[in-house]
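MBL fold metallo-hydrolase: structure tokens wanted.
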Amino acid sequence: MKIEQFEDKGLAHYSYIIMSDAEIAVIDPTRNPRQYEEYAMLHDARITTVIETHPHADFVSGHLELSEAKGATIYVSELLGAEYPHTTFDDGDVIQLGKVTLKAINTPGHSPDSISILLLDEEGKEYAIFTGDTLFIGDVGRPDLRENVGNLTASRDELARQMYHSTREKLMPLPDHVLVYPAHGAGSLCGKGMSSANSSTIGDEKRTNPALQPMSEDAFVTYLTSDQPFVPKYFEHAVALNRKGASKYESSVKRVPILPADHELEKDALVIDTRPQAQFKKGHVPNSINLQDGGKFETWLGSIVWPNEKFYIVVENEEKMQEIISKTARIGYNRLILGALTCPPTATDTTMEMNLEDFKQHPENYTIVDVRNWGEIKQRKIFPSALEIPLPELRERVEEIPADKPVVVHCAAGYRSAAATSIIKPGIVGVPVYDLSDAISQF
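Answer:
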């Protein structure tokens, strides 16, 4: 028996291969199934089983493509209401994979249709549990993503109560030595306090995980429903798409039009400029948004742009083209791209540099906009007088920013303030809009 963990760092997502006697099960696969196919070829093994722990909100899964390519059976909870060919996998159901056994455990809480997969070794002993978004290392899954989408919907309070019982009655009674393999790690928006560790044991989680400590059900509900991070705009769309099954990865990304730099863009179309902010500030298409390529590009794209909103992508160079398109595909946004191109000749708009010393001496002469998340703002206000509008809410709230003074935008390090400045600038007439960028470290 062999367990292999695969990590998508951009989405802090873990997927898994379990292999026994040249048979492979893939759990919670990423959009592009190539890495699992290559692993199977390398080990002269066959992918027979694909398991989805729930319909994911934060990424588009490749379960349907992998199943169709390899003739593998997809297993999901009956409660998911999957629209693709599948076999139901709920409490009491088992899959024989080579010499090991996979056992379904219904663990609602993050979603009503969540399951965990218990791996029994060749001797029939509990060896590992694949917990999806139910139990993380140092956390449990957030309960507020299924109030409006999915085959089953549930309020956050109802799901939080289900999570209480799933953890206490289904997972914590497992032997302490059982390995815990979650679907996400630190940086994911599917929880609020995940560890950077990629695995643990039931015993360690019972000792150290704040969500598993002794408390009443009501106290747990209060704990779990408080201080959760923001919900990106694309999450509901991803749940619906995963329930249906996504189109094939390679063909879908090849459908994105690659345009020459001098292509005439549609008037008033949204432009997402992924170049570094220094390049963007020197010249960009008017009204474009500077969403720099980086570790969390997919999350921020899906937090700023609506899942029915078409846009152009501007990239730094030809080498970056397919990488950026691939990232959009991970959240199902490749279908929205009107075209991808390098910096066009119409990139003549510039961003003004601010007088940092004047701002330090006379901050009252500026409207300061804090675009950090609510949790960060609650933890520490950097400028007491700042107008607080987190980046995911900014496009819908630009009109709240007064235009009687120059505007200074800040976040925690400079990435979000670059995007926010480019969003605010077209909506503020008559005064300059400045990006405090990484100078925020001086405050």
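The CA atoms of residues 189 and 400 lie 27 Å apart. The chain has three domains: 2-238, 248-342, 356-442.

Cheers.
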